[in-house]
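Lab notes, practical 5.
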Amino acid sequence: MGTKISHSGVIEEIQGNNVKVRIVQTSACAACKVAGYCNAAEKKEKIIDVQNVDATSYTLGQTVTVSTSGQVAARALLWAFGLPFVVLIVVLIGVLWFTKNEGLAAISALLALVPYYLIIWTQRNKLREQLSFTIE
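Output from the prediction step:
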């Protein structure tokens, strides 16, 4: 995954060496001519935090391009979806195997995600450094 993922956006806020950029994320069919009449077309605005930049060279409202590597995107997907899915399945199968109670297994699997996301939340600053965007 050596590709680069980039989006153009507008600078919304500048605080110290942190720049917040508003991007418009669109689905593949949002550019279609009939997208306004179709429910499948999706368009979402997101705020991207870009850390450790020389904020003095940027102004509010300036159009910029934010980017990250495909490897960072894959790592983010792993932390956000892959590992929680593994935790959910392992706990579900393990509790079901030992108790033969489907309801208890389902509740246990969902509750097992609480400590996972608490750990993610406590490590958010470390993850923010690893999963960073840059301004081109």
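Observations recorded by the TA: DSSP finds three helices and five strands in the chain. The beta strands are 4-15, 18-26, 43-50, 63-69, 134-135.
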